């Protein structure tokens, strides 16, 4: 953008929509010299980080935890992230946990086969 085409960042926007429209059509990189550094701090709501709504029962009773996790077939995964619900006792697993369980089972079945075929 040439200097002639460039305008100043408006001092005030009348609404969030107006702000959005401005930044949808303007590149912040072209206005970098009109910005100033500010110090900000954010404090996320603890509830949004610690307690989640349970997809099974809908209660705000699901937490993110790590540790040994016994599975229904008796296998215990030593360190697994999961989301148990304290209300309905359902357990949920993220994609990384599913991959960990699959890898653990694959290693275990290989180990069993080695033991079975050992002379
Ligand atoms: Zn639940």
Which tags fit this structure?
alpha+beta; 3-stranded antiparallel β-sheet; elongated; 20% strand; Ubiquitin-like (UB roll); 119 residues; binds zinc ion
What report would you give on this structure?
The structure is a single chain. The chain is of the alpha+beta class. It has a domain at about 45-115: Roll (Ubiquitin-like (UB roll)), CATH 3.10.20. The chain is about 30% helix and about 20% strand. The strands form 2 sheets. Strands 3-4-5 form a 3-stranded antiparallel beta sheet. The chain has a two-stranded antiparallel sheet with strand order 1-2. Strand 4 and strand 5 (about 90) form a beta hairpin. Bound molecules: zinc ion. Zinc ion binds next to loops.
Strand content: 15-25%
- Looking at the overall shape, the CATH architecture of the domain at 47-117 is Roll
Q: If you consult CATH, what is the topology of the domain at 47-117?
A: Ubiquitin-like (UB roll)
The helix content, as a percent range, equals 25-40%
Poorly predicted runs of 5 or more residues: none
Estimate the mean pLDDT confidence.
82
Shape: elongated
Q: With helices defined by DSSP (H or I, 4 residues minimum), what is the helix count?
A: 3
| Name of the CATH first level of the domain at 47-117 | Alpha Beta
Oligomeric state? single chain
Q: Rg, please?
A: 26 Å
Bound molecules: zinc ion
């Amino acid at each position: 953008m040439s200097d002639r085409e460039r305008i100043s960042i408006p001092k005030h926007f009348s609404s969030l929509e107006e702000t959005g429209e401005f930044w949808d059509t303007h590149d912040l990189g072209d206005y970098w010299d009109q910005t100033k550094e500010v110090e900000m701090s954010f404090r996320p709501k603890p509830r949004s980080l610690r307690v989640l709504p349970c997809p099974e029962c809908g209660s705000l009773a699901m937490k993110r935890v790590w540790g040994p996790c016994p599975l229904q077939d008796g296998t215990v995964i030593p360190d697994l992230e999961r989301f148990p619900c304290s209300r309905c006792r359902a357990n949920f697993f993220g994609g990384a946990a599913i991959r960990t369980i699959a890898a653990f089972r694959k290693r275990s079945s290989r180990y069993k086969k080695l033991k079975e075929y050992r002379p």
